[in-house]
Amino acid sequence: MTQDTANFQNPFIVGERLYLRPLEPAQDNHLYSTWMNDEEIRRYFSVYPTSDTRGRERLDNLYKDTRHILFGVALKEDNRLVGLVGLKDINVLNQTAEFYVIIGDRNLHGKGFGTEATRLMLRYGFLELNLNRIQTQDMEENIGGWRADEKAGFKHEGTLRELILRFGKYHDVRVYSLLKSEYLETL
Description:
single chain
C-alpha cells in the first residue's frame, strides 16, 4: 500500500510510526550534538564532547565514508527528528555490517521506537544492500538496547568481558547478530 509522504522531509524508508531520512548536517547537527553530550546517551555511545561545529563535521565525514550509512529517525506525526540509525564497517566482500540505533529524545525511550527503527534498517540492510550478516553490540547495562535488538530478531552470540571503559569502570558488551536467512524467515 502506498502512503502519502508529501509532508515528510526526504523520506527514504517509511514505517508504521516513523520514517528514516537522510540527515541534513546544517539543520540536524545541533540535535546530534545535544544527544551526544547527554550523560545517559554518552554512557553507551561516546565519551567525547561534541559542539555544533564538531557535530556538523562528524556528520559530513560520515556521509563521505562509503562504509557507513546513517539515517535520521523522524516521527511521521510531526516530522520531528528523534534519533539516529546506521550501519557501519560495511564489508562488501563478506556482506557484513555493524548496526546501531540511538533514540535521542529520552521521552520516547521504552515506547518501541528503537525496535521499529531497527526493523526498518534491517529491511534496508538485508533486502537493499544484500548483506548476509548484521551484528550489533550493547553494553550489558544498556538493557533497553539489547532488549530492542532481541525483539527485532537478533541472536545473542556472547559477551565480551570488560571491553569498554566508561565513567571509571570497565563494562561487558553483549554481541548480537542476525543472518539474512533468519531475517527472511520472519517475512
